[in-house]
Each structure stands twice: as structure tokens, then as C-alpha cells.
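Q: Give me the 3D complex with S-adenosylmethionine.
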Amino acid sequence: MAKRAKAVNKRSRAAAKLAAAKVAAPRAAASKFANVAPGELSTPLDFVRYAVSRFVEAKLVFAHGTTDPMAEAVFLVCETLHLHPDQFESFATARVTAQEAKAILDVIARRVTSRKPAAYLVNKIYMRGLPFYVDERVIVPRSFIGELLDSHFGGSDEEGALIDDPARVENVLDLCTGSGCLAILASRRFPNARIDAVDISSGALDVAARNVADYGLEDVITLHRGDLFAPLRDRRYDLILSNPPYVDAQGMADLPRECRAEPKLAFDGGADGLDIVRRILNEARAHLTAEGGLLCEIGRGRQALDAAFSQLPLLWLDSEDSDGEVFWIGAADL
Ligand SMILES: C[S@@+](CC[C@H](N)C(=O)[O-])C[C@H]1O[C@@H](n2cnc3c(N)ncnc32)[C@H](O)[C@@H]1O
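A: Here is the predicted complex, encoded as C-alpha cells.
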């Protein structure tokens, strides 16, 4: 009898051990995560495949310059190897060194565990193919206005052109400039323009100053600290660009973890998301030349804005990845 009890106890201890091992399994898998055996992954393509698996497994959100795990993995792997993402295909099957492999695994692990946007981990983002320095003092650039500058401001021959001759644009204002990315893109589109760029955040302006210097545009772009138009007094512009904060209260409450690493000031547009946009619309006319116009991104607030400013003929523009999230209005209609 005692012998049987001992055997049962032994079996249940073994079962308990097995159950404990099963419970511990996910932790073991998680710790293995950072411990890919040397040589198990050898090419950039291997590391991209591995990163995609980890990113999908961790349910990451992709909204900061890339929109899917593959593009995010290519960006991080290339950046670690000092390659432009466009060079990935050329080197996909090349061998990486042990030191490079370690650096790539490290950045993949940091992306998963920190949930920070990839751009913050490597202090870089590409917009319209151009590199910009970024850190946590600025939102990661992803404005649709970058694409619209190319598609709607290229010259009079283009269908849907909003300004006849980009070379005749003399003064541009980038309101809420953040990293300065739109001001810098505008300097390429309007080669004869002087550009003012305003932000209320001194941290953001430090980042913008670094980008302006990287592009050697100190003589073209002037940075101003202040609340919207306040630092500009009565200056007028041929074009005002703005990607202001426009997230409503519900959107702020639902921000994914990745976005919570970005400055709240860059998102928060008040209860209905339109606090800043309303002010821009009300004040823009006094800062536009007679032929000028305002190009402004507002996210998903189109319906609310159309209702609030029903007297204004806002022209809603689409981009490759957005549908009516940016409007244009000429000075004469404001
Ligand atoms: C959505 S981010 C846009 C940044 C950049 N233009 C871009 O597209 O990446 C909005 C920016 O507006 C700035 N901002 C917020 N309130 C402002 C205000 N009242 N006046 C000027 N800038 C403001 C924030 O600091 C932030 O840099």
C-alpha cells in the first residue's frame, strides 16, 4: 500500500514538474529570442525574415514611415548595415559579419521590447527618399503633405496643379514644423523661396535646426519659436503648409504604444481634434498674399471641419495612403 502511494506521489511530482516546465516554456522561448546561435542567420535576407517573425509575434504597430513588418525590418537591417533601404535587394544574399549580426539582433530586440518607433532607435527616417535626423523631441515625420508637394505643386502642366509656377513662389511658411522635414522638402520644390518655420517646442526646433544645417539651408529656412502665427507678426506668404496636432480625445486615449513614445504636444488637438486647425483657418488669411493658399493636414476630421466651416470651399486632396486628410484653400476663399 505504502509502495503504491510512493509510486503515485512520484508520478504526480513528475506531472507537476512537467506542468511547471510547460508554464516556463514561454519564458524560455522569450530568452532564446536574443540568443540566435552564431551563424544560424547569415544574410540580410535571413535577418529580415527573422525580424518579420518577431515583429508579427509581438503584434507591433507600423505607422512611422513604414506600414508593414517587412518594410520595417528592411529599414532596420539596412540602417544597421549603413545601407539605404533601396540597396537591400543588391545585398540581400551577401554575408554579414559577426559584429554586424550582433548589432542587427540588438536593434530587432529593442524594437520589440521598447515598442519605440524604429526611427527613434536609429535616429533617422526617410521622407520622399531623403534622410532626416529624429529623436524623441519630435514626432516621426510621415505627413501626406510631403507627397502632395510633389503631386500638386510641380508646375502648370500637371493635372491638378495648385500653384502655376513653383519658381515664382517667394515666401513659404511651415507652421508646426517639428523636425523641419516639410520646410526642407518645400525648399526643394520652391527653389526661389525663403521659408519660415514655426514650432512651439524648443526641443523640436533643436532637431529642426540640426536638419536644416545637415541640408545646408541655414540661409533659406528661418526657425521661429512660438504659438502658431504669433512670432511672425504681420508677415505674408505665397504658401502656408501645416501638419498641426489634430488627434481628438478618443484618439489620444487609443494611441498605440509606439505613438506614446512621441511628444503628446504633436498629437493633441483637443476634444474634437480641431483646436489648432480652427485657429489656423481663422488666422491664415491675414498671413497670405492675394494669390496664396493654405495646405493643411487634419487626419480623420474632415466631416467635423466641413460642418464647422461649411461656408468655406475646402478642396480635399488624396495621396497614395490617404483619402481626404489634407485640404487646400486659396486666400481669396478664406
Ligand atoms: C504633427 S506634428 C508635425 C511636425 C512636422 N511638421 C511633421 O509633419 O512631421 C505637430 C507639431 O506642432 C507643434 N505644435 C503644437 N502646438 C503648437 C502651437 N500652438 N504652435 C506652434 N507649434 C505647435 C508640435 O510641437 C509638433 O512639433
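A quick observation: The pocket of S-adenosylmethionine is lined by residues 138-139, 141, 143, 176-179, 181-182, 198-201, 204, 227-228, 243-245, 265-266, 276 (CB under 6 Å).
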